[in-house]
């Protein structure tokens, strides 16, 4: 046990006098680290060396690294995450609102001396493309007492001491996000018990984030989820200027005509954003189309001078799910973690003799020679208890972290501060039935309504929720920071200022056969076929088939060149079952009724959909729609 320091440590002279220095001094006085170190991205090599020497990282071949988090610290905790402000009317259904004073007092007490024996790293960062219209909202300083968190931040955000100088010279040097992350001792945090000490708080109206008790992913990399989603969406609505959403962003280019479209998409955590954003065209369409990557998890969107919706990815790296990533499902991701990329693999299986890494789905079978292999908990495969023989080698939420510059499909204009205009917004999740492969919903209100009623199976990206069916509005449920009715209103306001709004659509790659459970759609690279149909619909070159819940593709309109899909599966993928949808509408009524101040346009869209469904049931051709 380390004795608590009697004096707070020196703050390096490189931190100018002013709000940043005051912020560091305030928290160093409370957490009492042994020393304070300011980080620049150029410190990566020396930090990696220190982390390897300390056993926090292990070599994973040619400039790649392996890390293992504590077995009770492997995913975001939604239960322990709160938004705290001084205004009780900020309480929504999903944001776990608490009074700021209470939360601050609780955290200040837990953080007393909590970094004793450790180093406090000062990480100045920007969550934006430099120079863009929203860069002002993107500056932050994360204080962390964990070296691996620093190494992850260097890959995921733009980290530079230059931002400290920029702030010192700014007319509003206090306008930066204050982030404090303390990992704590994972053995005494009581994770999951009644005495759980962890608390992950965004003090939204103070632009302060304090996270105690985790070194993993969105719990610990404060720039990513807490700043660029929770706080940014709060700021976006407070200023009226922008939307911050858990959306991927990609470009599709038709090389025949030279035209490029941009598609943004909200899918709940671990439901396919990274895979879609990195997708390569299926081989049969590869000569004609190109897909370019902008972002895989977060998009900030604003109204451009030309009346179109513009978007940019505030992140500088990819924190991607490892499971099922292989050269067939996602060749671009395999390429982005190739030797020499500085990639950090977390909680996959690791061979301590060869430095190889493996996860479920990387290859069809586990490595044949088990010598040297350890599972994600660090147990030698050969020593595992026989009862664990079938347990996965990698944690289902194991991930790779790689910088954007390693993504070979990165769009040439991905770092253009002007952003890119959005043509299409899609929502989708893991839905085993009801949701067809694709349906267009017409108009802004119907689009926002569709996003608010996104229902899907929860995944292993959050603790203890895998497989539960739940609504996940716009895929933002874990990241919402203010009430849902106001959120819908803010969306409608932004969309209402556009002269050329995007087209909205719902997609589902995860429909299953009710008998044997197989996925009806091949997914992954073939998903481009669906995007192409949606873009053709926007361009007016296909008409689709109207249904009460939107326009679905006619089977003949999808480009299925080179795809072998049973006719029955395709029929089911494109069908609407009004009875099943009728049940869904009941559930939606309950879901929406929980939201205070829901805009009338949204209630109207709900009523219109319900009426259209009722009509289709009573009309003479009211049998389930079948588009084969
Ligand atoms: P977060 O980073 O948690 O926000 O996740 P994400 O939305 O980026 O999800 P990701 O693309 O990493 O996919 C999560 C899991 O879904 C992976 O195991 C993928 O292999 C799987 N997946 C992605 N796309 C498809 C698809 O089209 N079909 C099927 N069957 N699985 C998919
Ligand atoms: C998610 O869970 O949606 C993620 C991963 O993108 S994490 O950064 O851990 O939140
Ligand atoms: Mn995510």
Automatic annotation (TrEMBL):
Task: Report the EC code(s) recorded for this entry.
Answer: 4.1.1.32
Tell me which cofactor or cofactors this protein depends on. Mn(2+)
- Residue ranges of every copy of the Phosphoenolpyruvate carboxykinase GTP-utilising N-terminal domain listed in the record: 22-237
Question: What GO terms fall under cellular component here?
Answer: cytosol
Specify which residues bind GTP according to the UniProt entry for this protein: 270-275, 399, 430, 524-527
Q: Where is the composition biased (Basic and acidic residues)?
A: 70-81
Which parts of the sequence are annotated with region: Disordered?
Answer: 59-93, 609-628
Show the active-site residues: 271
- Which family does the entry's similarity section mention? Belongs to the phosphoenolpyruvate carboxykinase [GTP] family.
**Record-given protein name:** Phosphoenolpyruvate carboxykinase [GTP]
Organism encoding this protein: Corynebacterium provencense
Per the record, the gene is: pckG_2
């Amino acid at each position: 046990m380390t004795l608590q320091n009697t004096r707070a440590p020196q703050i390096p002279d490189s931190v100018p006098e002013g709000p940043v220095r005051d912020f560091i001094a305030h928290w160093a006085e409370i957490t009492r680290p042994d020393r304070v170190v300011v980080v620049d991205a150029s410190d990566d090599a020396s930090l990696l060396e220190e982390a390897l020497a300390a056993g926090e990282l292990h070599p994973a071949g040619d400039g790649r690294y392996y890390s293992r988090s504590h077995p009770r610290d492997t995913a975001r905790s939604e239960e322990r995450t709160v938004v705290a402000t001084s205004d009780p009317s900020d309480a929504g259904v999903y944001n776990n609102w608490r009074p700021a004073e209470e939360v601050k007092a609780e955290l200040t007490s837990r953080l007393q001396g909590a970094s004793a024996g450790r180093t406090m790293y000062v990480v100045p960062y920007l969550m934006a493309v430099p120079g863009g219209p929203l860069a002002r909202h993107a500056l932050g300083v994360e204080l962390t007492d964990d070296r691996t968190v620093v190494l992850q931040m260097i890959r995921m955000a733009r980290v530079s001491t230059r931002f400290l100088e920029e702030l010192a010279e700014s007319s509003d040097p206090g306008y930066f996000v204050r982030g404090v992350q303390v990992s704590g001792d994972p053995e005494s945090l009581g994770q999951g018990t009644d005495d759980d000490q962890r608390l992950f708080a965004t003090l939204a109206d103070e632009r302060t984030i304090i996270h105690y008790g985790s070194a993993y992913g969105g719990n610990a990399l404060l720039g990513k989820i807490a700043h660029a989603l929770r706080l940014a969406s709060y700021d976006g609505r407070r200023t009226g200027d922008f939307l911050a959403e858990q959306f991927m962003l990609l470009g599709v280019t038709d090389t025949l005509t030279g035209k490029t479209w941009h598609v943004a998409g909200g899918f709940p955590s671990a439901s396919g954003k990274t895979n879609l954003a990195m997708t390569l065209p299926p081989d049969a369409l590869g000569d004609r189309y190109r897909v370019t990557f902008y972002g895989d998890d977060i998009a900030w969107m604003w109204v451009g001078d030309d009346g179109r919706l513009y978007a940019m990815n505030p992140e500088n790296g990819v924190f991607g799910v490892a499971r099922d990533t292989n050269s067939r499902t996602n060749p671009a991701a395999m390429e982005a973690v190739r030797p020499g990329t500085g990639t950090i693999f977390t909680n996959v299986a690791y061979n301590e003799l060869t430095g190889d890494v493996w996860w479920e789905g990387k290859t069809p079978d586990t490595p044949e020679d088990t010598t040297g292999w350890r599972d994600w908990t660090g147990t030698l495969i050969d020593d595992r208890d026989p009862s664990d023989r079938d347990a996965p080698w990698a944690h289902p939420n194991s991930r790779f972290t790689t910088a954007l510059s390693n993504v070979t499909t990165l769009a040439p204009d991905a770092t253009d501060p002007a952003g890119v205009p959005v043509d299409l917004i899609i929502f989708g999740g893991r839905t085993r039935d009801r949701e067809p492969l694709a349906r267009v919903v017409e108009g802004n209100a119907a689009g926002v309504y569709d996003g608010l009623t996104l229902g899907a199976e929860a995944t292993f990206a959050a603790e203890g929720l895998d497989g539960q069916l739940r609504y996940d509005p716009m895929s933002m449920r874990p990241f919402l920071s203010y009430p849902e009715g106001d959120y819908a209103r803010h969306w409608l306001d932004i969309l209402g200022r556009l002269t050329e709004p995007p087209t909205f659509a719902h997609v589902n790659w995860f429909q299953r056969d009710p008998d044997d459970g197989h996925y009806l759609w091949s997914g992954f690279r073939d998903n481009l076929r669906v995007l192409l149909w949606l873009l053709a619909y926007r361009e007016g070159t296909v008409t689709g088939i109207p249904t009460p819940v939107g326009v679905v593709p006619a089977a003949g309109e999808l480009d299925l060149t080179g795809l072998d899909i049973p006719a029955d599966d395709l029929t089911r993928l494109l069908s609407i079952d009004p009875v099943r949808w009728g049940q869904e509408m009941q559930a939606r009524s309950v879901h929406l009724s929980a939201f205070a101040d829901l805009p009338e346009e949204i209630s109207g869209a709900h009523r219109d959909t319900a009426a259209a469904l009722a009509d289709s049931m009573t009309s003479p051709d009211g049998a389930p729609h079948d588009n084969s």
